[in-house]
Amino acid sequence: MAVIEVAGLVKTYGETRAVDGVSFEVQEGEIFGIVGPNGAGKTTIVESVEGLRQPDAGAISVLGLDPIRDRYEITERLGAQLQESRLQDKIRVNEALELYASFYRHPADWRDLLDRLGLEGKETARYADLSGGQKQRLAVALALVGSPEVAILDELTTGLDPQARRDTWDTIEDIKRAGVTVVLVTHFMEEADRLCDRIMVIDHGRVAAIDTPAGLIGRIGSKQRLRFRPSNPLDDGLLSRLPDVSAVTHEGPQTIVTGTGNVVHSVTALLAQQHVIAQDLRIEQASLEDAYLALTGDALVETGSENR
Question: What burial class does residue 29 get, using C-beta atoms within 10 Å of its C-beta: 0-12 exposed, 13-18 middle, 19+ buried?
Answer without folding.
Answer: middle
